[in-house]
Write a structure and sequence with these properties.
Organism: Natrialba swarupiae
Structural class: alpha+beta
Distance between the termini: 24 Å
Number of domains: 1
Radius of gyration: 14 Å
Protein name: DUF8048 domain-containing protein
Helix content: 55-70%
Strand content: 5-15%
């Protein structure tokens, strides 16, 4: 399985705002990632890919996607919302880091972002993401 497409700092930020215990969020995001990873080729064929890197890809999907995925996962609304929020926060962060903030923000008005891990992260990237 590829690494989680959500950075540790984003998980911490999301956990602080989510209505699920911070210790639960990483496991929920990993469960979602397992499903998303299995559907990667479908996302590539059927949805707009707005970002691609060695470790993750970002797609824009129709509203309601996260509700359907939450049903597949068997999670409640709070858990689904926390997972969705983590993807949205990571999407915004990518927009800021790629000078596409306005584009990414406006896309959130009509669609939902989905990030899928696609490869193993390099150890240097992993260390940088954890502030080491």
């Amino acid at each position: 399985m590829a690494d989680n497409p959500i950075d540790g700092q984003v998980l911490l930020l999301t956990a602080a705002k989510a209505s699920v215990p911070p210790s639960r969020l990483p496991a929920l995001v990993e469960r979602a990632q397992a499903l998303l990873e299995g559907d990667l080729e479908r996302y590539r064929r059927s949805h707009e890919r707005v970002y691609a890197a060695a470790d993750r890809e970002a797609f824009l999907v129709d509203e309601g996607h996260w509700e359907r995925l939450g049903e597949r996962m068997g999670v409640d609304d709070r858990e689904r919302s926390a997972i969705q929020r983590a993807h949205e926060e990571q999407f915004r962060r990518i927009g800021r880091h790629t000078d596409r903030k306005a584009e990414f923000e406006s896309s959130l008005e009509i669609r939902e972002p989905v990030l899928v891990g696609v490869g193993e992260r390099e150890p240097a990237e992993e260390s940088a993401q954890h502030g080491q």
